Amino acid sequence: MKKGSIYRFIAFALMFTLCFSQLGLLKTQAAGNPPANEKTLSIGKAAKGTFTEPEQTHWYKINPSKQEVAKFSHYRVKLQSDDEVNITVYSSLENAKNNVAFDRYMGYSYKDEPAQLDFPIAWTGPYYVKVEYYGSEDDMIEEDAEDGSTSPEPQPEEKTEVPYTISYEGASLPPSQMMEEECPAELSTSQKENGKGILKDLRTIRDAVLSKTASGKDLSSLYYKAAPFISSKMIIDKSMREQVYKDLVQLKGLFTDVAKNGASSTYMITSADQKAINDLYSIAYKSVPTALKKDLEKVAAQTKLKDVTDLNVSSVLVRAKLVSANSVSTKAETRYIVKLKDGANAKSFKTKAQSKSASIESINPLKQSAASFDNMFVIQLDDSNGKSFSTSSAQGKMTAKQIQALPETEFIEPVQEYHALSMDSQYPYQWSLNNTGKNDGTQHADIQYESLEKLLNGQKLKDTVIAVADTGVDSSLADLKGVVDTKTGYNYVDRSSNATDDNGHGTHVAGIIAASANNNYSMAGINSHAKILPVKILDASGSGDTEQIAYGIKYAVDHGAKVINLSLGGSYSRVLEYSLKYAYDHNVTVVAASGNDGMEELSYPASSAYAISVGASNRLDIVSDYSNYGKGLDITAPGSDIPSLVPDGNVTYLSGTSMATPHVAAVAGLLLSQNPGLKPKDVEKRLTDTAKDIKFDEKDAPVYDDEESPAEPPAPGYDYVSGWGRLNAYSAVSAQQLQAQVNTFVSTQKTVTGKAQSGSTVKVMNGSKTLGTAKADAKNTFSMNIPAQKADTVLQVIVTNGKASTSIRAVVQKAPAKPAVKAVTNKDEYVTGTSKANFTVNVKNSAKKVIASGKADAKGAFKVKIPKQKENTVLYITATNSQKQESEEVKVTVRDVIAPNAPKVNPVSDADTAIKGTTEANASVVAKVNNKEIGKAKANAKGQYSIAIKKQKAGTAISVTAADAANNTSKATIVKVSDKTPPAAPSVNAVTTKSTAVTGKTEANATVTVTVNKKSIGSAAANSKGQYSVKIKKQKEKTVLSVTAKDKANNTSKATTKTVTK
């Protein structure tokens, strides 16, 4: 093989490692010389050393004392030499032996430029320092001749002494003061238009591709040794910097494709790319001393590669052993996930699916390690031989349509990618825990951590497992030692049990949740009762696909997690929704980031009903501009400029809903430590009920057209931008400790009730106005009277007891709909009508006392039995729901439908001019003869009446009725006019001593009686013509006879006297 071809590929591979990220991620270098004869350094005291020949190594050790850990955040390690000397600081003996170091803790000195490394005191120590010397620069060596011959061998350097001085001192540095090392790529592109994108791609390639194999690590190690020599050249050679930049721009397309697709890149290397690779390698090769040139050539000889022009990157990487063949995984865009219907035959489905489409390469169960989903399969499209089948291609879409049509298929969807949701690093300290108002902040715009810490101090709570499903977690940091469950963690990117972070995002998240507090190291996490379960589902670039995330969620659930933090987002996926429901059904609370696009749309999975969605706020206590918002946002939490740990030990400030989410996850974990039996909906309610309102009413808010305006106004107390408010950890945990609960109350109620720890003081506030106060009793309940409040009024119920204090949002609900009540009469034994289904219906008397209750049926009909009520009785009917919320009252007056009894009528004679009697009080009384009214009157309050009439003939039948106020008419009382008029004195014919009868004329049919000295001597009835004849004995002359007539009514006429004549 031509040496020039080897050089060209080595340049290509080497340039993949020419930049190192600001996050300073962990890099495992090729094995080097292990520590030997190390000397212990003392703080503030310089040590001197001398190299006598190239490729020598000296070792030193730093033992951090308790006092230094408490006093300083960093050790500033300084190496001074006039020659190019390399220095590396390791966090432990094991890392020193294995040559595992962080980019930012590798440096080099050269004339007038000492190496200075700010090493964080983030590990327990001791720390190891390696100082290396590789010789001085060679003369420039020409590249291969045109005929392919090799360059001449470099001449050995002369031995010389290279002295140096090494020292360290303590420093307390805010994150904003942390220094970044320089590297060739950064020096050439930092001010260039395309530089930022190129550097980002190179960092991704380094962390996601080359760090996975021994060959890749060898190249990285070689670069670190060469870096000081390359940098020193570029610093003084502008044309060299310009040439590097030009070549990197040429390779930008290659970098972008490899950064996106990793070892699976299909990018074809062009001749122009080949030339840029040649140039870059030549620059690197000519810049290093003889010892490193030998190393370069040794590595080159081992690759045995031909010309790489017209080859795809993936095949070159595999053949060079820079990536493993297994890592050339299928791309997300060539895979579908299929969910079969319950009971569907998998074998039949596979047969049908493969017969339907020639683009299907394989169908395999969705199963990986300990996580699996029933009836789910992954369909791999055939993208070999240049077919380029993908889910977005016409053939791919046709395949999906065909599979969906199969009777066994429930749904099919393409595998999608999701990304960690973080922003750029910023400057202040942990304002989210304690915002003093400095640095343009707003005082107390934090989660009230200090009050929370005082509350929990000394309490023995159970640890809760919180899964950080992310880029992994670095557990070697002192603040995370003993906090991270490395034995149970899992890596779904590499399919291994090593869930160490190779990006930094996951460690940052874990630090916010659970970094050890009050140990003098680094920072304080929120939850000291959390155990972090690391589940690596995102790769070194912060990306992961549907399968990895779904696996990760199920794995976390199945391995004891009670909370899952998802600081990531993408598009909706039914597969992920399935896994989220799995978590929800197993009482695992999922907390997800809303997204960083500043859009009125939540990222997924934050938009899922099975997750608590979290937006980000800033130190001013307003929602951050980048935070996604909209209907369904549950809560906000501090997310801008949030400090936390990254794997290199520094506390770094990042911004994003990714940083807000772990604040909420941490507090969710605390709630579950207080009560492991809480369900996800309970956790969400506790968090949102106690959140602080940070709604910001913009005076210059946009005016929407009718078509653009929001579909519905937000619920009282809710805001589409900030959700239910900003997280208040102290209030949420206090509420749980106090078991504070406010019963729902409606606008019809004047009493607020609920539960709280016995002895707690409870206060209800409407803004700044106190509506009422109470004390929780021995039964842990409280009740207080307050003025009735309008529906939708937002109140705050403040519960305090000892160190615990919480403010719970309570919204006055609209009273349930009033029941529809049918008329009630004094005959009824039931109150009937309709209300909402299954509501309880109460019937109250005029004193508002319940006299009867019943329940509406499933259709809302009710029938409540009551005692019969008097007419005009006032009843109040209400409907009460299952939450004991009562409707407004329906007032019902009992109708009178019972007629009065037939009136009592005093006897009426033919002499009377009034009909009198008694009836129902106040009734109207009417007298009729032959249905013709002859008089009427109204009874008084005692029921007495008197009807004026004309005199009626004796024997006339008079009908008397009474009608009440409801116009109910009684039955008639018939009274006959009695005869009270005596007959006229009868006419008597002459009576002689010879007469044996007294005759005359009187009222027809009257009985005529003849008396002498009041003694009857005879009587007889007159005929129909009034003629009578009363037989008597003969009477003496001058006897005086008294003759009277009595009618049938026993009315007796006046007497007619008749003297007997001779």
What can you see in these coordinates?
With 1062 residues, this protein is α+β, with helices and mostly antiparallel strands. The protein has 8 domains: 1-22 and 180-328, no CATH class; 28-179, Jelly Rolls (Sandwich), CATH 2.60.120; 332-415, THUMP domain-like (Alpha-Beta Plaits, 2-Layer Sandwich), CATH 3.30.70.1510; 449-689, Rossmann fold (3-Layer(aba) Sandwich), CATH 3.40.50; 738-811, Sandwich (Immunoglobulin-like); 820-893, Immunoglobulins (Immunoglobulin-like), CATH 2.60.40; 904-978, Immunoglobulins (Immunoglobulin-like, Sandwich), CATH 2.60.40; 987-1059, Sandwich (Immunoglobulin-like), CATH 2.60.40. It has 20 helices and 56 strands. It has a 7-stranded parallel beta sheet, with helices on both faces. Strands 2-4-10-6-8 form a 5-stranded mixed beta sheet. It has a 5-stranded mixed beta sheet with strand order 43-49-48-45-46, with no helix packed on it. Helix 1 (3-15) crosses helix 9. The radius of gyration is 52 Å and the shape is rod-shaped. Residues 142-161 are annotated as: Disordered. Residues 462-694 form the Peptidase S8/S53 domain.
